Amino acid sequence: MKYLALTLLWTICATAANWTDRKEYDLVLNIRAETSPQKRLGLLDQWKSEYPKSELGQARLELYLATYQALGDSPHTLSVAGEMLAAQPDNPVGAYWFTLLLPEEKSALPEQLAVGEKASRQLLADPKPAGGVESMAHRTLGWIHWQRSEYTQAEEEFQKCLQVNPTAAEISGWLGTVLATEQQPDKRVPALWQLARASAYQDSGALPDGLRRQFGEVLERLYTSYHGNSSGLDQLRTAAAAAPFPPVGFDIESVAAAALRKQDEELSRTNPQLLAWVRMRQKLEAPDGDKYFAETLHNSPLPKLKGVLIKADPPGKPNELTIGVIDPAQAEIVLKLTIEFPNDAAAGTVLEFEGAVDSFVKSPFALTVVSDPSKISGWPAAPPASQGEQK
């Protein structure tokens, strides 16, 4: 690709017959002979100015592109590649250079993103694209989606790029940034992995030291916020430097998960009944809670639990009790009694109970359990009957 424009122009110089005049022909021969890119650029400008409608306009654009590329002028190279595609949408040279350079554009316009997407997909349409071209096209497509805030599509393209080119630490940095930006719980650990790889990978394809430090600073801030401290960060860097993606099942404990673990450990020691209920309720409230209820709990015995009476219906001889277990003021379990109690109990009465699970509603949360007074302890005894009642 790099030398295609020059080769094409030299061929045209030898074979083309549709010159505007001899002067144009001689001018192009001078361009051909000029080895200095800067002087060649001046001659190209002269050619464009004197012969704006030359039949060799496409070849001239390719030579402009090669000259700007030799000068290291990426913005002008990108601009010329865009002109080539505007004049000839399926031009492979224009597609290649536009795809390669678009991510270097600091503030790309929407129309440039559209051209870049079409050019990248054109390159991928090749039945057997070279590895470098395939990786480059996915890189640019991911970047385009990122600029459009289309994070899911950006994530997919960056992952494809890393699958083709696992050493592209730049893409790990971009992917980690996109995953972090999405702020979804299931993407926080993958984001930390990619940021760790961008900052720690040092072989072929590694980022310059300055960029690695920048990604390292972002990693440390996000890791500490997520995990609570920096413990395990060095191990994460080492693991990420060795592989572009985390292994199946890889996890980093979050602050919230650590708090729940400590709470579970404390409850396991002090109140195993409550811990059993907490875990059960977490499963019921999970996305697959209805499936868990149907396959595991329905018509099964409920482990013995302790809770607080919130209300009893109907008054006088209740046969339905509403219980709070985790929070004494929040209804969680409804006990439906096969035999009514002969008397009331005050709200706030602590009860220990068991029974058979009958039904479940996720919102508002309510687990209905069938029980009877013989399986409930803590209910106050009925007051003795008055003498008048005895007679």
Spell out the key features of this protein:
391 residues, alpha+beta, Serine Threonine Protein Phosphatase 5, Tetratricopeptide repeat, OB fold (Dihydrolipoamide Acetyltransferase, E2P), five-stranded mixed barrel, 17 helices, elongated
How would you characterize this protein structure?
This protein is α+β, with helices and mostly antiparallel strands and 391 residues long. It folds into two domains: 4-242, Alpha Horseshoe (Serine Threonine Protein Phosphatase 5, Tetratricopeptide repeat), CATH 1.25.40; 260-377, OB fold (Dihydrolipoamide Acetyltransferase, E2P). Helices cover 57% and strands 11% of the residues. It has 17 helices and six strands. It has helices at residues 4-15, 22-33, 37-50, 57-71, 74-87, 92-101, 110-124, 131-147, 151-164, 169-182, 188-200, 209-227, 233-242, 255-270, 272-285, 289-297, 387-390; strands spanning 301-313, 320-324, 333-337, 350-361, 366-371, 376-377. The protein has a five-stranded mixed β-barrel. A hairpin with a 6-residue loop joins β1 (301-313) and β2 (320-324). α4 (57-71) runs antiparallel to α5 (74-87) and α8 runs antiparallel to α9. The longest helix has 19 residues, at 209-227. It is elongated and about 130 Å long. The termini are far apart. Mean pLDDT is 91; it is low at 1-6.
- Rg, Cα atoms, Å: 36 Å
Task: Please give the domain count.
Answer: 2
| Helix/strand/pairing category | alpha+beta
Characterize the main sheet: 5 strands, mixed, barrel
Unreliable spans are: 1-6
Q: What order do the SSEs take from the amino end to the carboxyl end, as H and E?
A: HHHHHHHHHHHHHHHHEEEEEEH
What is the CATH level 1 assignment of the largest domain? Mainly Alpha
Number of strands: 6
How many helical stretches?
17
CA-CA gap between termini: 111 Å
Strand content: 5-15%
Mean pLDDT: 91
Overall morphology: elongated
Helix content: 55-70%
